[in-house]
Amino acid sequence: MAITANRLQRKADPMSPFRTKTRWKEGTYMRLTSPERFATFVFTGQDLKDIKAGKPVPIKMTQRRLAKRSGVSQTTISRLTGATSRPLRSVKPQTAEAIAEVLGVDVTVLFDPETVSETHRLTA
């Protein structure tokens, strides 16, 4: 039996305490509060270096697992951690809520709502 991509994606739980009841206004995006705070929840390249050096590393979720569970690409998660040359600082509210729900935190712990100006472009 083949597993399809739709079966792998986790359905959003409407009763989750981490889903906000806020209806975001048109043109709102969620700006990441800090890549460092986000990295406290997600396994990064620095964690891998620490493991190789024999340093203790707290248990975190891998970027791949977070991506699959939240329905977001792994590239988006990597860019949010600031590990690429083109870091991502803002996402759509639905993306922010999905990530926060999987991590088990309120969306406002990781993201701040802001309105879109003409210079901002949403990619996720």
UniProtKB/TrEMBL annotation:
PROSITE patterns, per database record: HTH_CROC1
Transmembrane segments: none
Keywords, ordered alphabetically: DNA-binding
A family per Pfam: HTH_3
CDD domains to which the protein is assigned, alphabetical: HTH_XRE (cd00093)
Protein's name in the database: DNA-binding XRE family transcriptional regulator
Entry's Gene Ontology molecular function annotations: DNA binding
Domain (HTH cro/C1-type): residue spans on this chain: 60-110
SMART domains according to UniProt: HTH_XRE (SM00530)
Domain of life: Bacteria
Naturally occurring in which organism (per UniProt): Zhihengliuella flava
